[in-house]
Amino acid sequence: MDIELITNILYATIRTGTPLILIALGEMVCEKSGVLNLGQEGMMLMGAVVGFMAAVTTGNLYLAVLAAVVAGILMSALFGFISISLVSNQVATGLALTIFGGGLSAFLGASYVGMGIDGVQPMFIPLLSDIPVIGKILFQQDPLVYLSFALFGLVYWVFKCTRVGLNIRAVGENPEAANAMGINVHAVRYMCVIFGGAMTGLAGGYLSLAYTPLWSEGMTAGKGWIALSLVVFASWKAERIMLGAYLFGAASIMHLILQGTRFEIAPNLLAMLPYVATILVLVFLSSNHAKTKLNTPMSLGVPYRPQL
Amino acid sequence: MSNAFSSSLEFIFPFKIEKRPSDSKLMSYLSPLIAILFTLISGAFLFLSLGVDPSTALYTFFIMPLTDVYGWTELGIKVAPLLLCATGLTLCFKAKIWNIGAEGQFIMGALGGGAMALQFLESDSSWVLIPILIAGMLSGLAWAGLAALLKTHFKANEILTTIMLNYIALNALLYFVHGPLKDPNGFNFPQSALFSDSSLLPLLSADYRLNISLLFGLFALVVIWALMSRSWIGYQINVLGEDSAAARYAGFKEKTLTWFALLTCGALAGLAGVSEVTGPVGQLIPHVSPGYGYAAIIVVFLGRMQPVGILLASMLLALTYMGGEMVQMEMTLPKSLTGLFQGMLLFFLLATDLLISYRIIRIKKSNVPSDNAITVSQG
Amino acid sequence: MKFVKTLLAASAMMAAISGCSDSGTEEAVTASPAITKDSVKVGFVYVSPTGDAGWTHSHDQARKYVEAQLGDKVETTYVESVPEGADAERVIRNMASNGHDLIFTTSFGYMNPTLKVAARFPDVKFEHASGYKQAENVGSYFSRPYQGRYLSGLIAGKTTKTNVIGYVAAFPIPEVVRGINAFTKGVREVNPNAEVKVVWVSTWFDPAKEREAAETLILQNADVLTQHTDSAAVIQTAEAKGVHAIGYHSDMSEYGQKAHLTSVVHNWGPLYLEKVKSVINGTWKKDNLWIGIAEGATDLAPLNDSIPADVKALVAEKKAAIKAGSFHVFNGPVKDQSGAVKVAEGATMSDGDLQGFNWYVEGVSGTLPKS
Question: What is the widest separation between alpha-carbon atoms in chain B?
């Protein structure tokens, strides 16, 4: 294995991990406020199809990305309305979103299948991209990858250093207490859900506009579920999400590379790996009770109804 | 003094949500009907936007599949797996154990039962069905047991673990169908040999595909309902779901109940899975389930966790699958309509469910400032 | 209230049952094989959406071709994205009981459901693609895209500079292995030093995964790619990375103008037209057809202008030879990866052996996965 190959593998890893990071960061924020949104696949598909349709219609990739984000926001707002304001069961609502989003995206995108567009091109950062190895891996990516770096920074900073982050965590840990402190629980949750939707919509747009510039029904092929598991795998910490996403991405690329060598494992067994890994992590984390308490938002999945 | 809380709804409509003194029984029957009504109305608009006559389309979607006996028998073989899974899930959901893994338990049931059936390819004794069905139930049960173990011993959230297990199960099936269980005479195609006739579920009528799995489903429904409403363990499960603190005070063993609920659900979903492969399919193939495990979740909510409701909801959901095929064939409408209808139905249902525990009252202008003051202090 | 609800449900059921006048099977009975019909109803069952650039799209194109050619004499219907499994049987049966005279079931997994339905509806004709079982009223058919693969291999072998050619493949079933082997044979004939590397993605359709596979191959120095998967991701990747690619199922040039050398395409139109006409004329009989370039079922998409004239000439020459029957892709000697001669010089691999193809020819690197 020479340095060039490793560089290229890492370069590809970053790209592969990007949609996972976006979704996982968004869902992490959502879950930190106590809301479990299982509708990732549906939101992502909507982002992908709307972004693609906008790109084909307007020819403007910026508008297309924006459209994808808006699609994600609208879908998550629907979810938020039903699960927060109408106090419904979050699991069922999320599943409904997945099914609905899948159907709606297929419906809207039917006449766009088979079309191609000029996708988002890599944007070399001047100077930095000339650095050997690191330059190629980090600074010769496309703008949406850079955006994912920036969003990571934002989320990390919000939870590390800001009042907003504290409020979100308070709401997620103990909404009654947060309410007593004067925090508007519903408003915070809405904000987090919508952020999650925006991120997922963006991830969908990334797929259909940059990664593989086309639209096809169900093109997300389960990435939403991997991202959900990633949030748990990372025990709701942003930096671990970055790490985990790239790990998952690297694993899937290495699997493709290792085919035909003596390190070969049956592809279906290898496909189980992210899920098995997540369960193992869950087990490891959960068995250490103190650690778990600090990480899983206590009110995750429980609708907030003030006691009367 | 109002028992109302200011919710985000207030920003949108001049209404408040007020908790009812007790759940409205009327609404719990009406809400699924209202949801269905709203879904039909939305569907009508959808069809209009496609330039299609709404009443023809709705007829083709919801009524036409049932205009002959064949249609009803087909409904039956789709209702069976939904009913089995939904019945098992009800047990879990009543205890607030959010088992999303019925799909994986279904698949493992199909895999385990199918593997057993492949041992009996030469046999023509009708007794072989017994070990086959048992193998299927045990496989599903074991798979759910994994989730139970992860929950009770490692405190892992079952929503997440069961979703993971679904994907692992899917890949396990693919692995076996592409490899160890592949038909040696099948030109290397990814499917198992066809099961012997004696390994197939007996049909209820020779002209149709409807088999005894429907009876399994109905039987399970009755048994679980009786369990939930008449037995001690059912009572404990209900209390556990309503108020886990109270359950603990009363000395109910949460871990045992968790195991019981998950294992039972796994066995039922496993039975659904093995019934599918020893029924309409007749062999092991890569995709044994069109998402029954997930659709069953919708059935449970739509049916309000009541036996008659679950039966009717299974029928309705089975109908949406068939209706989707019908409108494609008769009216060249897109396949995506099925997912749209199912999703809309669930959304409307979840929305109207609010009305069961809460009622909506108008805000009187003059009261607004004082109401706000009251709610903040109630916080 | 519960009682009322049950009553309502029961009444609905009764209304539905009483509304049923005929079971629909009568229409199938009126079809009589010996008599010429004025018009026929033809059904198509698809395993994926018609809009994919892939397998189903090629069948749907043929359906439209038949409609265009026969006008009033034919009425076609189709159902797409029908999962292989229990549901397929219902769709096929509904078509059969709904007045269809001929039904095309276009995926391997529909084989057993087709046979089951055919047994109940002896007067309806069925044509099943890519399977291996027939019945009195069920014929099988498949094309020989491997012939096109061979021709595209000639192009790939001549185009590669790195002597590494990449193949993104779905599942190690004989049809796919056959394609890989035919392709490799073509490559090695013009370039004995080139090797073909295969990456398995375990899915027929997952653009992101196909892209990753393509990138992995490029990482391993492949400068020409091809695929046995359903999306255009491989072509797109090739275009983005500045290498070449050969598409499959349909002409994928619009996804990569510079990269796209050609595609191996299906053309089901002539076969479908012939079959429909035979039902109209009452001359349909069951068959096990395996047709290729000679019958027009397999072809190459227009070759990219950048391909040198001598290569184009070679391809044309070989294509003509295949068409004439003077050249067979798997003419001996055919060696496997260990160098052993599996097909002697002067002999040709039989169709039976081709159908069960489960070993690699010389020139493919890596081992064929067992699962």
Answer: 82
